[in-house]
Amino acid sequence: MNKSFLKKWKKRHRLIWLMIFMLIGSVLTTSMLSKREALAAEVMIEIKPLKNGGALITMEQVKTLLEAKFPTKDPDRLSRVPLKQLEETINAHPLVRHADVYVDARNRVRVRIEQPEPLIRVIDGHAASYYLDAEGRRIPLSTAYTPRVMVATGSIPPYRDSILNYPDHVLSQLVQLSAHVEQDEFVKALIEQVYVKNKEIYLVPKMGQFEILLGDASHLEAKFRRLRAFYQHVLPVAGWDKYELVNLAYKGQIVCRKVSA
Length: 261
What we know:
Strand order of the largest sheet: 6-5-4-7-8-9-10-11-12
CATH topology of the largest domain: Rossmann fold
Distance between the termini: 122 Å
Structural class: alpha/beta
Mean pLDDT: 85
Largest sheet: 9 strands, mixed
Number of helices: 6
Number of domains: 2
Radius of gyration: 30 Å
Helix content: 25-40%
CATH class of the largest domain: Alpha Beta
CATH architecture of the largest domain: 3-Layer(aba) Sandwich
Shape: elongated
C-alpha cells in the first residue's frame, strides 16, 4: 500500500474520531445545561415526615408557594425556572429546615424537603406563640399540623436570634430542659407543661396536685433522678395530696412543702 495514501487515511481517520468526540461532548453539554435550567415536565415533591409522622407543611402548600412565586399557564408545571431559584424560595419558608431541588433521569423536578423538628411550644409573656427546635431556632405554628410537645408559659421574654449563645436566657434554658426531657422516658410521660416565674422554671405534672420547682436547667440528670425516687418511694407512703411544692433546685436534696391546713 502506498505510504502517502496510508498517512492520509490515518489523518482522516483521526479527524473523523475527533468530530465524533466533539459531537458527543456537545450533546452532553446541551443535556446538562437543559437540566440546569430545569426544563422539566413536572414537579415531584417529597416531604420527610417528623419523628411522630406528622407534617408541618403539605405538598399543596409547597405547590401554592411555587406557583405564587413563579406563575405559569399550567399550574402543575414550573418549566424554565432555574433550580437555584426554586431551592432558595423553598428554603426561605419558615416551616422548611432544608430543601434540595434537582432534575432526575426522567427530566422531572424533584423537591426533597426536611422539616424542622419542634421540641417545645412557647407562649411568652407578650402572647407570642411558636415552637423551638433543638438548635434554638423559632418555628411558627402550622395550619396543617399541631405537634404534641411540652408547652412553656409564664414570664418568658421575647425570642432572640442565636438563643443558645446565651445559656442563662430563659429560652435557652427551656431548650436545654426540653431536649433532656425528650431523652428521659419517665419525665417525658410525667410532664406536659412548664411555666416560668421570676426566672425560675416550674414543672406541671400530669399526676399530682403539687408543683415541681426545677430552678434552672442545670444538673438535670441528677434532679430528675431525685424526682423519680420521690415518685417511686415517697408518694406511695405519704400520699398524693400531702404536698403542694416539690423543690428540686437545691443540690443533692428534695425539699417538700406540705399542703397548708
